[in-house]
Amino acid sequence: MGGELCATMGNGFFIRIGKSWSQLEKGLNDGVSKSKVGKYFKLEARKSCFTKELRAGLATFLTMAYIITVNATIIADSGGMCSIADCSAPANQTATADCMLKPNEGYQSCLSKTKSDLVVATIVSAMIGSIAMGVLANLPLGLAPGMGPNAYLAYNLVGFHGTGNMSYQTALAVVLVEGCVFLAISAFGIREKLARLIPQPVRLACAAGIGLFIAFVGLQIHQGVGLVGPDPSTLVTITACANTNPQTGECLGGKMHSPKFWLGSAGFLITCYGLIKEIKGSMIYGIVFVTLISWFRGTHVTVFPNTPVGDTSYNYFKKVVDFHKIQSTAGAFSFSNFNRSEVWVALATLLYVDVLATTGTLYTMAEMGGFVNDEGGFEGEYLAYLVDAGSTIVASALGVSPVATYVESSAGLREGGRTGLTAVTIGLCFFVSLFFIPLLSSVPPWAIGPSLVMVGVMMMKVVKDINWGNMKEAVPAFITMLLMPLTYSIAYGIIGGIGLYLALNLYDYLVVLLKWLAKMRRMVVKEHNQVSATAAVDSANEII
């Protein structure tokens, strides 16, 4: 009897608390909706409310927050501003060029500082882009440095630890120019026309190919879980070895015995199960699980080994809360090598990927949010493209790759986000994360690798839209996807796909051209006959 009475009293208490909270929430929503802020963001017009927008913004942030550490880790693989001058050398000796590819205390210390710079740069560019999207375009979309362009910059342009065709400074200059060009074509309204110049099968295959490329990166030892490594006979093979060559990643023994690989695999399964159950922030949970275990020292999976570099990283990590100021990557432009062909190929590739990715994502998100009108456009479209391009310019100035609208914005749309307040909330969440740089810069590669593989899985969805029954479309699409991971180049995949598409359709183009020439010839002959007939009549009249 007493238990039932207590239960009844308890239930009544929680019911009263729930009603009070509902009344408080309703009052808050009504107040904000009728305020200048609510009217500016059109809360009532779009049938939304303040608290719903906050929940939507938080949901989107949780699903895309992985980019903070993932983007910094990928671009840090380029070496950033680190060079041979940062390498440690024995007394009375000078460092050699291979010090950047071998374990070196000085160079690793520089890389750690660069990664912290890139974490801040990623957060600031995402914060500025998201807030600008909300305030200017009034759309509930989150922005951050895009997956794909970051890998292209790190591994194709600059190369692993600076072994590519151009320097980090030149690559940032390319990103800056690309952002300016994208801003210009968006301002003049020719963005959509440019996107349509690329054959549709190549456009679709481009996203899938980039996904395969990113997944391949996530499987390697230096950038991911270490499942795939080099082999002198077959080029690549399965590794996950207990002992590897620190310079090449080649297996030295203990294949499939790497504890870091198995820990990363556990994180991958956590992410998969979360996505299967449609749990918000599933990408984050896998990363967090692996990272927390890797923070313990004295284990085989620690990210803080008992080395001078490990001690320095651990001491910085123990600060937990710290505001890190960008030291090396901001404003690191160089236009001195812009007369090389590689620069212009890189510029065209980044522009192409940016135009297609932004166009496709924005329209998809606008359709999901119910913003698209009968003419196929949506409110805020023009400003949305300008914000995207402007954010890329800001990102290049901070030292990171082009900014893109994230498909993870769909999480916020599902929560009911319909105005720019959602995007502003996303930006504010990024701002809060600025004060936890010691934690965010201590995420290991084997925690990042599973999320890269999962990004590849998500990007493969577009292959269902390719017409595999038509070989003129299937072959170029397949070659585009195949070349990107196998040549380790997004640009080569695009060039190969477009070239093959043109070659396979050359006969059709020639037939159309010949028909047009024959038609023009008939018109010329007809016109000539009419002129001749008129001249003959005039001559006859003169004779008469």
From TrEMBL:
- GO molecular function, one example? purine nucleobase transmembrane transporter activity
Give the UniProt entry's GO cellular component terms: plasma membrane
Which positions, given as ranges, span the membrane? Answer: 118-139, 170-190, 202-221, 343-363, 383-407, 419-440, 501-518
A single BP term in Gene Ontology: guanine transport
Q: Where in the cell is the protein located?
A: Membrane
Highest taxon, organism lineage: Eukaryota
Look up and give the membrane topology term: Multi-pass membrane protein
Stretch forming the signal peptide: none
Please report which protein family the annotation says this sequence is part of: Belongs to the nucleobase:cation symporter-2 (NCS2) (TC 2.A.40) family. Azg-like subfamily.
PANTHER family in UniProt = ADENINE_GUANINE PERMEASE AZG2, XANTHINE/URACIL PERMEASE C887.17-RELATED
Protein name, entry field: Adenine/guanine permease AZG2
Organism per entry: Prunus avium (Cherry)
Q: Which gene encodes it?
A: LOC110752152
